[in-house]
Design a protein that fits this description.
This protein is mainly β. The chain has one domain: paralog of FGE (formylglycine-generating enzyme) (Alpha-Beta Complex). 9% of the residues lie in helices and 14% in strands. The chain has a three-stranded antiparallel β-sheet with strand order 1-2-3, with no helix packed on it. A two-stranded antiparallel ribbon has the order 4-7. Strand 5 and strand 6 form a beta hairpin. The longest helix is centred in the middle third of the chain and has 10 residues. The radius of gyration is 18 Å and the shape is globular.
Length: 310
């Protein structure tokens, strides 16, 4: 089995690891400091049977590493200023395309798509039963989150480099710099909730199609908001890459922002899994449906957002 390419990255340090699941194996690759350019292949340190998912080291300043989630998802508990105008506008270079309208919304609220349930059994020892759910077709946008803030239900998100809150022209970008509690509060006021990791992976793999990416098995090119083909400084408008939609018509499951889930990372108590990869990522493996960051619920980063399920 080929080792995984090492890369320069967020808060990963030499003591942390990148974990990527292939078949029933988990590969752990040590990381060097973010300040060094990494062009060499990683060394295979260990190969372990993996009973669930195998996430990766994160794509942003908030990522802390990777490992397998709990077999039964655990919901963890959990904040804010205006974001400054970025000086670099290259993040706005995503193609402005009409997002896909494929997929059934039968029995789902407006803006959600129905994802039939089934058994998630690929690349894992123990199959997981997935119930039929409704999933947001797009990541929660700045505009939608602002409506929750205006109601006095949600708090303003964090500020800082590449945060979208308060930036003119970013209304249709995904809201970022929101912690887990803020994401849960938003979904709750919509009569919805955050997904657990198994539900998220089921949707991202096209249900039992079990593809590596939402669009299929080919690596990402111009079908996701990521930095592998075009260096980005922030997010893209949601739904800008319809060729990267899942078979059910769900946008941005790979790239744009990593997404909060309610599944605990047992190897590092107090953290949860954040799948999807983000605009920051350059490694195509980071955008795979089987990959995920993990971080503490209270963190707010420019590469983390969310979507709701019901």
């Amino acid at each position: 089995m080929a080792p995984v390419q090492k890369r320069k990255h967020g808060r990963c340090s030499s003591s942390q690891s990148y974990v990527h699941r292939e078949g029933n194996m988990r590969l752990m690759v040590g990381w060097a400091s973010r300040t060094r350019e990494l062009g060499t292949r990683g060394l295979l340190l260990s190969a372990l049977l993996c009973s669930s998912c195998a996430p990766r080291c994160g794509a942003d300043t908030g990522a802390t590493g990777a490992a397998t989630p709990a077999e039964s998802p655990a919901i963890l508990p959990s904040g804010s200023a205006r974001a400054p105008q970025p000086t670099d506008s290259s993040d706005m270079d995503a193609p402005k395309k009409t997002r896909s309208t494929k997929g059934s919304s039968e029995g789902c609220p407006d803006g959600m798509v129905r994802v039939e349930g089934g058994t998630l059994s690929t690349r894992r020892k123990a199959p997981a039963a997935i119930k039929t759910i409704c999933v947001d077709r797009i990541e929660v946008t700045v505009q939608s989150y602002a409506e929750c803030v205006a109601k006095g239900v949600c708090q303003e998100p964090g500020s800082g480099k590449a945060c979208n809150w308060g930036v003119p022209g970013r209304e249709q970008h995904p809201i970022n710099c929101v912690d887990l509690a803020g994401a849960e509060k938003y979904c709750k006021q919509k009569g919805a909730r955050l997904p657990d990791f198994n539900e998220w992976e089921w949707a991202a793999e096209g249900r039992d199609a079990a593809t590596s990416y939402p669009w299929g098995n080919s690596p990402p090119e111009e079908n996701a908001c990521w930095s592998g083909t075009t260096k980005r400084t922030s997010t893209c408008p949601v739904g800008s890459f319809p060729s990267g939609d899942s078979p059910q018509g769900i946008s941005d499951l790979s790239g744009n922002v990593s997404e909060w889930t309610t599944t605990a990372f047992l190897d590092m108590p107090g953290t949860v899994l954040l799948p999807g990869g983000s605009w920051w990522d350059k490694d195509p493996d980071a955008l795979k449906a089987i990959a995920a960051d993990h971080d503490v619920p209270g963190q707010k980063y420019h590469s983390i957002g969310f979507r709701c399920v019901k």
